[in-house]
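Team,

Forwarding the record for the chain on the shared tracking sheet. I've put the sequence and predicted structure together so nobody has to dig through attachments.
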Amino acid sequence: MLVSALSRAIADRVMLMDITLGRKGLLGYLKALGGSNVVKVIPSNGSASGSQATDKRLKVICGANTSTITDSDWIGDKTPMTLCEVRVSPSNTVTPNVGASELAEALNRVLPFTSKDDNRPVLACVNFEAKDGKLTLVSSDGFRLAVVSLDYADGEGQTLINRDSLKGVGNALRKAKRVRVSFEAGGETIGGMSLIIDTELVRYKWQGVNGDYPDYQKLIPTEFNTFASFDTVEAIKAVNSLKALSDNPKDYPIDLTIGNGKIVMANPDNKGQAELVADTNGQGKVRIDGSYLASVLKACGGMVELKLTNAYSPMLFSQNGYQVVVMPMLTNEANEQAKKDREAKQAEPVAEPAEPVADKPKTAKRSRAKEPVKTV
């Protein structure tokens, strides 16, 4: 059980009975022990005199093997400062408040859409928010916004956790039998909160990043003119075929034309196109970054619904409560339509202005619209 717990932990440092050890070194040592499948670990102050007598130590007994390990063993100057607490019990003492597989899937669905820009520390985080019986996870890189909610009737809390701290946690949680999520006040930042995820073997605890997350709810569009429901597996195949035709596989726009029971995906230079069978309502056309489209389709999986307002406004992908907002790439046609819509709106009688979803997009042949989420 101890080896299993250490294998699930993703931190480089592990706390075991109040001493901190290098996780990989401890795991390798336990695997090397022979003679029994039972390990006895007890505190030990040792028999040395002077300063050594006060060192934190653990005595490890396994079959005919007896050894002493000391605080900071297997930790070097370059060992990352990631820490978790490991505890082993013959019974599952954790009272779950979320599903392990559901939380694992939620984490894996939001992490791809966090920002990798070091100058945007808030958007480099996942926003965890417990409120009104829901635990909501939110991420955004400025051009995409991902939101997923889980049932959670265990109080309220909110904190920002850096994306690098959460790498691998989703896959580790898939092996857990019980999971409990909680928030703890205080810590290194004034007024900050820590996020705690307890499993039957491992406790994960992260100190929240100081900062205010943007009001993401205002950035999710609610009015649409075009709808399409389609299979992501077939859509990913179509995207890959168009990517192979592109001169630049890292930057390849794709035009989506929706209507008449199908979605037509095409390269803007007319090198190729692919048709998908879809359940559609209304007609519309939009240009999207191919890599963005591929990542959204992969995160959604199964059948996904695409909702579109026009060629220059944010589009919404949704699947079983999971939502991803994506900004389109602007074209000359989209710019002209935006201009006409603005002029038509200005000609209307004066009314209370609605809050915009995003700033006015730049006019460029292949530029993306301004970001739907701003750093603070």
